[in-house]
Amino acid sequence: MARGALAAALTPLLTAFRTPRSANDDGASFDRVHRGRRIRGTRDADGHWHITLDGRPLHLMRRADGTWLSMVDHYCSYPAPLDAARAAVDALAPGEQLRGGGHGVRA
Question: Are 87 and 71 in contact (CB under 8 A)?
Answer without folding.
Answer: no
